[in-house]
Write a structure and sequence with these properties.
111 residues; GMP Synthetase, Chain A, domain 3; 3-stranded mixed sheet
Length: 111
């Protein structure tokens, strides 16, 4: 069986990350804008992930869940690394329109 192309692998990893919910907000890390960088190739997957608040005590839980979701999606093949980063600081504007609607951010921002 051949290895997936890097673009296919990135799509699969991004989809897997959509199953990882921020434990405080309940919205997936992709739509919240917490995934800052995603690199994927035959050698492995590296994700740069942040939290909504620097130093969040839930950061280890979030990174563990992200790693597990990716591993479930891609199996035991490529290495998986999830790095916690703080720069740039997360801002609510980084959320997708869907996440903003879910949190009623559009209404609040327009008020």
């Amino acid at each position: 069986m051949s290895s997936p192309s890097p673009s296919d692998l990135m799509l699969r990893v991004r989809q897997a990350l959509r199953a990882v919910l921020d434990p405080e907000i309940g919205i997936n890390v992709v739509d919240l804008g917490l995934v800052y960088r995603l690199d994927a190739d035959a050698g492995g997957v590296t994700v740069h992930l942040t939290t909504t608040l620097p130093g969040s005590p839930l950061a280890p839980l979030l990174t563990d869940q992200a790693r597990a979701a990716i591993r479930t999606e891609i199996g035991d093949g490529p290495a998986v690394e999830v790095r916690l980063v703080w720069e740039p600081p997360w801002q609510p504007e980084m959320m997708t329109p869907a996440a903003k609607r879910q949190l009623d951010w559009v209404h609040l921002a327009g008020a």
